[in-house]
């Protein structure tokens, strides 16, 4: 299981997290829920500030948001009308057996205790329902994005996901993979703000945070693809791993 200190580090930056983190493409969320008729009961597990919850709501589904961090829950409640986050974790969800049609996870599956979480998700989902973790991953085939990741020491938990996510335990059929490309347009200051919401930055020593800030400013001032630009397009690949409940 990943370091719980990092897993619960986001609440202090909840407003910035909600403002700067990328949204999920509608086509990716729609693909994750293909075969689940609206209005369905969908759990957003590890819901954070509700970025994925709002995308699910936009497709006409009911959202049951579950989040362990009180700061993130408060932000979700403030900015996601019609949804009140439940206190819980991937390993302990306060909902009855077989009570939901799908469980989606945005940017959080890598924090889970996999064996316990798979069993808990299997308990929640009705037969034929869907489990789908989703990640927005930066496209580091772009040179300046690779340099940005080096500077910020971005230990992208989504790296090599295709090899790492092989199955969700005995309750689920084989995993299907969907991939979707998209971009977000940000100012250099907004890119820095987004990187300050990463768990590595939030838990780093002040001198390390200062180094990251300084080198990011230098990157935007000197890189030939970035210097002098008021906004940049940050490219993403959204990966969706979908499996049916047996």
C-alpha end-to-end distance: 26 Å
Order of helices and strands: HHHEHEHEEHEHHEHHHE
Compute the average pLDDT.
92
Strand percentage lies at: 15-25%
Q: What is the helix fraction of residues, given as a range?
A: 25-40%
Count of DSSP-assigned helices: 11
Low-confidence stretches: none
**Major sheet summary line:** 7 strands, mixed
Count of DSSP strands: 7
The protein's oligomeric status is: single chain
Write down the Rg. 18 Å
Structural class: alpha/beta
Basic shape:
globular
Strand order of the largest sheet: 3-2-1-4-5-7-6
Short description:
With 246 residues, the chain is an alpha/beta fold. It has 11 helices and 7 strands.
Q: Mind explaining what this structure looks like?
A:
- The protein is α/β, with parallel strands linked by helices and 246 residues long.
- 36% of the residues lie in helices and 24% in strands.
- The protein has 11 helices and 7 strands.
- The protein has a 7-stranded mixed sheet with strand order 3-2-1-4-5-7-6.
- Helix 2 (14-20) crosses helix 9 and helix 7 runs antiparallel to helix 11.
Tags for this model:
246 residues, alpha/beta, 7-stranded mixed beta sheet, 11 helices, 36% helix, globular
Task: List strands and helices in order, with pairings.
Blueprint: H1 4-7, H2 14-20, H3 26-32, E1 41-45, H4 51-58, E2 62-67, H5 70-79, E3 86-87, E4 100-106, H6 114-124, E5 125-138, H7 143-151, H8 161-164, E6 176-186, H9 188-195, H10 199-202, H11 206-222, E7 232-244
Parallel strand pairs: 1-2, 1-4, 2-3, 4-5
Antiparallel strand pairs: 5-7, 6-7
Helix pairs in contact: 2-9, 7-11
